Amino acid sequence: MAITREDVLHVAALARLEIPEGEVEGVREQLGAILEAVGKVSELDLADVEPTSHPLDLVNQWAEDEPRPSLPREEALANAPDPADGSFRVPAVGG
Amino acid sequence: MNGWEPVIGLEIHVQLKTRTKMFCRCENVWGEEPNTRTCPVCLAHPGTLPVPNKTAIEWTVKLGLALDCEIAERALFHRKNYFYPDLPKGYQISQYDVPLCSEGRFVVPGPDGDREIGIVRAHLEEDAAKTIHVGGAAGRIHGAEYSLVDFNRGGTPLVEIVAKPDVRSGEEARRFLQLLRQTVIELDISDAEMEKGSLRCDANVSVRKAGEEGYRTKTELKNMNSFKFVADGIAVEVERQIARYQAGEEVMQQTLHFDPQTGTIAPLRSKEEAHDYRYFPEPDLVAVAPPADMVERARAEIGELPAARIRRLEAEVDLDLAYGLVTSGRDALYARVPGDDRRAVANVLMNQLAAAGVDPAAVDGAELGRLVAARETIPRQTFLDALGASADPDFTADPYLAETTVSDAAALDPVIDGILAANPGQVEAYRGGKEGLLGFFVGQVMKETQGKADARVVNERLREKLNA
Ligand SMILES: [Zn+2]
Predict the structure, then answer these.
(1) Which of B294, B354, B357, B380 has the fewest CB atoms within 10 Å, i.e. is most exposed?
(2) What ipTM goes with this model?
(3) pLDDT tens digits, B297-309
(4) Whole-prediction pTM
């Protein structure tokens, strides 16, 4: 499957990655190679094979609705670079 | 509308009131100190794994059944990818092509009979954290200096219901939403309070010529946080679109914010440059296959739906009163109150009893029926006092019914004569043309008789004497 320069820039923008101009072509080739390798699967006749969403053949791995202790707030905020008012402070968003 | 037909698709989010969050066992609470209900899972620390809340799944199934949906035999969770500070993982765990519930319908009784609104799907997902914008104008995003993120809400269970574009007016959207709210309250799965954000509604709005096939460009109205705003916002947007087409202009696809203060609509800035969420199956979770016993238990917990009760009550009262009784949870009491004048019973329940703030479930229907029947023969204040006490244990109407209104003219005349004699200035002004003063005299008589005089007789006697 051919991947274009535009595909690379679009995906990079969605992932908030800045790819230096000189590296776009290299990334394009590498992504193309990966897609090609995965694409090998489509050469097989899989008409009778059920789609798999997970390698484990399990369902209903869930827990009862019973609370467990949360983190103390100081601990929750310990890795925050700029906490304020008991919250994670972040640059103004969306404005 | 002169030949134009509104086409409205509603998307509703309902916050489930489970004890814990969707994928971790932090408490699911509202109004607590920020960031006091978090853990490595809901803060998205590396290496943590989500574990679904079984109760949230069962409640979603229950809601799906109430919406007459098909329940998936094997539902999947997907990742919805986007970057925003309220979403620490960089994706929201949601559902995509195999939701828990799909292909349902919801009946909305209206003035022209029952309207059936299709339900595309109802799926389960995790809510985002709460973001407070600081600085700038009144907490709005635009111009804010910084934002504070509170993860107490982050990761709490949220059901998204997507309806087909079958709604045809803002009023119908309001009725749909009121009925849906009452349904989830009776299913006991959410507080569904719009002001608190535990019930949220977005609307996709377009218009087309009557009889036209297909749909025109739609706009999205976001986060209208009351039933009135939903009805008004949609009505304003429908008018705007019709006006544009009539002026030969196009409607642009955009997200809009309705300002209830000014009644106007303005575009919102978009979160994401493009809605390209790159959904893929959540590899950290296996499929959900609701077991038969779970589905049957959920089905057994669904009572008669609000729409069916409205349809029955409408025959006795009218559509508005029927909606009022059912969507305020007062129709069970209404059924317990005897009396031939059903509208009077309904009106008392919706007005004076509601104002008295008593718990309808605690009221003795038979005693209330006696009060309603006597409402015009006992003093008004006595009637209101009785309603206020009607939920007390051992309440009986007897002492209140004993206080009858004084309607005997012979008993009222001396009082009226005394009032007129004491206010010669006002009497002269009335006779000079200031007829509005009648209310003043009535008030004086009521005061003198501690509200026990029959207002109709007092009015009659006063007029007679003043015009003599
Ligand atoms: Zn947690």
Answers:
(1) B357
(2) 0.89
(3) 999 999 999 999 9
(4) 0.85
